[in-house]
Automatic annotation (TrEMBL):
Its EC number(s): 4.4.1.2
Protein's UniProt name: homocysteine desulfhydrase
Keywords linked to the UniProt accession: Pyridoxal phosphate, Transferase
Catalytically driven reaction(s): L-methionine + H2O = methanethiol + 2-oxobutanoate + NH4(+); L-homocysteine + H2O = 2-oxobutanoate + hydrogen sulfide + NH4(+) + H(+)
Modified residues (N6-(pyridoxal phosphate)lysine): K201
Annotated InterPro entries: Cys/Met-Metab_PyrdxlP-dep_enz, PyrdxlP-dep_Trfase, PyrdxlP-dep_Trfase_major, PyrdxlP-dep_Trfase_small
Organism: Nonomuraea mesophila
One GO cellular component, as annotated: cytoplasm
GO BP of this protein: transsulfuration
One protein family per Pfam: Cys_Met_Meta_PP
């Protein structure tokens, strides 16, 4: 079964659909049963049976089945946000006294959550590479968490190598695959134990939902679906699940277009005198390009550049001069977005993450590439000439 079929048709020809071309949105908060015995059996298997919205729902379940199939995983569980998925997944794998290894740069709130867990006796260590992992691993280490490409710097790691390193040492590996989507990269097939996503980005694709998902083997997904998912209350709504399903229908086509436009813009910026560096794994000049070609089938359009300046004022002026790129957080929608961490991140945090003042993140949307290039060229000339 190929990805396009999964995105467009998987599960949509079943009797409960009643022939509807759009899956029904089940708005009810609960489901009734004919007997008390039936209710009891359903409650004991609430990760699979429809009992109460906080557990699961037919619309949400369809989205989960599609996402699990795309990732080539046994199970998937959708959450009300990406951080809902990340926090529940990490919590399900650690206990007081445990230690977490974090490889490379990861999403800021993920680090914040790991710091939050310190109050419960869970510690963590950030490392740059597997050599650092070798030095930092402890007898109490239970989990290796990473992204590839990494947060803001978009560094690429050898996923199979990292997963094998973790497996040989008895660690569970968890990877955030939001950047690539399962269209361009499938970490579970390379040995990663669990994959998490923010569905708010490319999967949703229209900046109109917030959601997350974890996918992997049933032995790991089912316990967190029955425990952390229920207790944390970060349930995905059926309305958001319907948006996920609609986003999936066009995901393969949109990702191809994002790739084309993103590479065109990145290629232009790489040769501009006002730009010091461009961090896009799809460029041949990227240090991880060869690895990326081996483990990815395509490239998304989120990347960063480093302006040739150390002035926050010049960085702000560059953002303000842009007209097609809107200033805002998040990414993955139709609209092109720009963000500069140095303008909103504490200096100590930025220094710890290795983010220079001139780093700017671009999310290239689906507008014509030539219009976006002209916009960037004008803003660079007007602010850094």
């Amino acid at each position: 079964m190929d990805d396009e079929w999964i995105c467009g048709r998987l599960g949509e020809d079943e009797p409960w659909m009643l022939g509807a071309v759009n899956p029904p949105v089940f708005e009810n908060s609960l489901f009734a049963f004919a007997t008390a015995e039936e209710l009891g059996e359903a409650v004991r298997n609430e990760d699979e049976r429809y009992v109460y919205w906080r557990g699961t729902n037919p619309t949400v379940d369809l989205a989960q089945r599609k996402l699990a199939a795309l990732e080539r995983g046994e199970r998937a569980k959708c959450f009300g946000s990406g951080m809902g998925a990340i926090s529940a997944t990490i919590s399900s794998l650690v206990s007081a006294g445990d230690h977490v290894l974090v490889l490379g740069a990861v999403y800021g709130p993920t680090t914040q959550f790991l710091r939050y867990l310190e109050k419960f006796g869970v510690t963590h260590t950030h490392v740059d590479d597997l050599a650092g992992c070798d030095s930092a691993i402890r007898s109490s280490t239970r989990l290796l968490y990473f992204e590839s490409p990494s947060y803001m710097a978009y560094a690429v790691v050898d996923i199979a190598e990292v997963a094998a390193w973790a497996r040989e040492r008895g660690l569970v590996s968890v990877m955030d695959n939001t950047w690539s989507t399962p269209i361009f990269q499938k970490p579970l097939t390379m040995g990663v134990d669990l994959v998490v996503h923010s569905l708010s980005k490319y999967v949703g694709g229209h900046s109109d939902l917030v959601g997350g998902v974890v996918a992997g083997p049933s032995r790991l997904v089912r316990p967190l679906a029955l425990t952390e998912y229920q207790l944390y209350g970060a349930a995905m709504s059926p309305h958001d699940a319907a948006k996920v399903i609609k986003g999936l229908r066009t995901l393969p086509v949109r990702m191809a277009a994002h790739q084309e436009r993103g590479l065109a813009v990145a290629g232009f910026l790489e040769g501009h005198p006002a730009v010091r560096a461009v961090h896009h794994p799809g460029l041949p000049s990227h240090p991880g390009h060869a690895i990326a070609l081996r483990q990815m089938s395509g490239f998304s359009s989120l990347f960063s550049l480093v302006l040739n300046t150390e002035s926050r004022q010049e960085v702000a002026a560059f953002l303000d001069k842009l007209r097609h790129f809107r200033i805002g957080v998040s990414w993955g929608g139709f609209e092109s977005l720009v963000n500069a961490p140095a303008l909103s991140t504490e200096e100590s945090v930025r220094a710890t993450m290795g983010i220079p003042v001139g780093l700017v993140r671009l999310s290239v949307g689906l507008e014509p590439a030539d219009a976006l290039i002209k916009d960037l060229d004008h803003a660079l000339e007007a602010s850094l000439a």
